[in-house]
Amino acid sequence: xxxxxxxxxxxxKYYGRQENQTKALDGISFTVMPGEYLGIxxxxxxxxxxxxxxxxxxxxxxxxxxxMDGVEVSALKGSKLADYRGKEIGYLFQNFELxxxxxxxENILLPLGIHGVTEKEGNKRLRELAEYLEITGVxxxxxxxxxxxxxxxxxxxxxxxxxxxxxxxxxPTGALDxxxxxxxxxxxxxxxxxxxxxxxxxxxxxxxASYCSRILFIQDGVIFxxxxxxxxxxxxxxxxxxxxxxxxxxGGGSANVL
Amino acid sequence: MFxxxxxxxxxxxxxxxxxxxxxxxxxxxxxxxxxxxxxxDIMGFLREMESDAVDxxxxxxxxxxxxxxxxxxxxxxxxxxxxxxxxSHELGMYLMMGMRRTKLLTMLLAxxxxxxxxxxxxGIPVAILLSEVISLVTARAVGMGILGHQSxxxxxxxxxxxxxxxxxxxxxxLLLSGKFASKEIGALLSPTPEGAKRQRPAVLYRIAxxxxxLLLAAAYLLAISGEAxxxxxxxxxxxxxxxxxxxxxxxxxxxxxxxxxxRQSGKSGLGVFTFRQLQENVIGQPLSLAVSSLLILAALCxxxxxxxxxxxxxxxxxxxxxxxFQNSENPSELPEKLKSAGLExxxxxxxxxxxxQMRSESNDPAEAIHMDEMLALIEQQADSSAGSDLLDAxxxxxxxxxxxxxxxxxxxxxxxxxxxxxxxxxAALYGYDSFTNREKAELINYxxxxxxxxxxxxxxxxxxxxxxxxxxxxDRAITLYFALIVPDETFDRLAEETYTHYWDATLSPxxxxxxxxxxxxxxxxxxxxxxxxxxxxxxxxxxxxxxxQVASSYxxxxxxxxxxxxxxxxxxxxxxxxxxxxxxxYRTLVRLGSHYEAICLSVNRQIRWFFALxxxxxxxxxxxxxxxxxxxxxxxxxxxxxxxLYRIAFVILFLLCVVEYGYMLVATRASSKYILTRxxxxxxx
Lengths: 258, 685
Fold this sequence. Notes:
heterodimer, A: 258 residues, alpha/beta, Rossmann fold, 6-stranded mixed β-sheet, 9 helices, globular, B: 685 residues, 7% strand, elongated
């Protein structure tokens, strides 16, 4: 059996004290296998972003374990923590977070500089990614001269440049129009199929989620449901329908009316 | 409630913006110090003997005050602008919550006034203290003694300090609030980063850069060739070239920084980020950088010129004599008179110095002397500037003087120098020392070594020895650029009968050591005033010298310090403000896995470069600027004193480094602290 890349065990994150306590995550456990494309869905405030931020070490969980390749993430400190952030995970932000005074190419190569990787190794990867993500034309442009879709694909290239174990994507299509959202999702799922890139994506866009191979639904800090795409028979459209059905229940299905 | 908010906000501003607050204090101190100049002990002292010059200097104070006001306005305007930009989001939020713009502006005005009040309350006592210290230190340094010190708080200086300070703060506030009031809430809430500003075609910036360098080079050339001093128009062109060149240079500098950023690509570390940040900073504020650079240049020139003028007036002191007495009725009685006044014991030596105009048979003084042989020797060297100057001066001697050898040798003895020996048909040449600079002296000494003959009132005399420059009387105002020192028999034959006896005297060393020269002379003057002896003391010379020294050093150093403070505050604040505005980027770097140390390294590098850009441009300019000022202002013999100038340059450079290091340290500390907040904030949402 393959070793899981990411293991989450009874993860809890509480905000506030005693009577005012909010349980953003209340004992979540799951694993992510290599090459998996996992979606996490849920309504606003369900805890999905908190989960992603815990994995990305942006916030510290109250209890539980996050194991990346068997290593406890919350125990990392100093340079190991910085290396984890840069090399083990690649983060794709909803609002891109490109440095707007750097050109596309400089933005993509930034992690190389930070982690002291030589230009030679990076350049080959840069060319491949730029070609695949169709951003060769904006390499020398500044973010202010790019479209939203181009910006997010440049951000994707930056997240991928160091070949991380896993891509954490936080609502990557949130700031994009439908067309650009579709292009991005196709590119990401292509990477997942061809290069076995592991992706963990938080979204509330059912369309974007339909590109995933498995989806966890979160409500009030716990996993409420799980959907798995039946390969190879189920089409994306069919999977999309199933997602919509779960979302209808989640967002206010008959249970809530009664 | 409203007042509490005002007080809290203004306190926070002061804490976050320590650099600016410090500069405000410096501004207040500067105002007070310049305005209270008339109250300084040394000015009171100088007024007694050089009242015209001192009054003229003091009448310049309002002008200096106005200039300071204007320049400080620049500082306060930029600093307040950065402060507002920094708070843009917060102010936008007040508006979003329904605060009316007038109320918001009132709040900002109240904050401004409150912080002005705090600055004044802290600044004025500091200023008064500092002004007293300066007064005491200068009084002591020149040997005036501090016993007569009267501490005087100048109320008018306090008033004008506060008035000027509040005035520029209000004007800056009005200008900024106008700008602020026209902004939309959206623009306040999410200010556009400079990087997103519209860029013009790159070639434009390259042209600007090239043009800037060319204009600067032209200005430098005009400055050092001395052309600039020939006419106001050329001076205007030089200045215009220099200013325009600096502006264009900073406008086009982004190209260079962009290239540097590209060269960093692929290298380990945050090199690309560092240079792109720098480039953005330069793109954002080329004007304030250029002005800062010009201010630093002005400061360096002031330092350079002030220091060398002070050194010149200080070092030029060939002091030997303390007193010269004149007694026209019965000259030979003077030693007796001193004795009867009980003053004899205070003097080490008293001797008769006879100086007289040369007799002429034809009653035309210009005919008294012929020195064709000497002029011919000088003419051989006439191609040098010293040669042509000398030729000019010596061919038109209309009232030649003679000095008696006996007296002059006593003077030399008092100065600890060997006597001149002359036989009856020999003479030595005298010329006062400021006229006879090094180059001229070398030339004359060469001519004298040929022992040329001259004809004085029909008598042939052979010139010999070297040129003598020691002043035969104490008052430096008496200047003879040509005189012959001759043995006393020759003197009796050559001088008009109405020659003058000057009784020169030196004070006894013990008395001087006990009281300091200045006090010693003052005491004796006091005693002499009670007698009918007519005297001139070294105090007048000293006062005149001191006046030049004080005037040049005080004003130039004052301006230099102000310029330096303003320029550095503007640079530092501009950097820190941009850092706050782009704080999000630092958080992104953290999320991409950058270490705290690596980010700080990048920031420190940014700071070093950002300070260095205007400073280096200014330093290069100052090399030419100071030289130009030398050729314009200073006597030529100082400009020749190359080792002395190097020493000054070194001291200035060292001072500049210390000041800049201090400012960089403050900026580095503030930014490291800020980065730390970015690191921590990354952990908690």
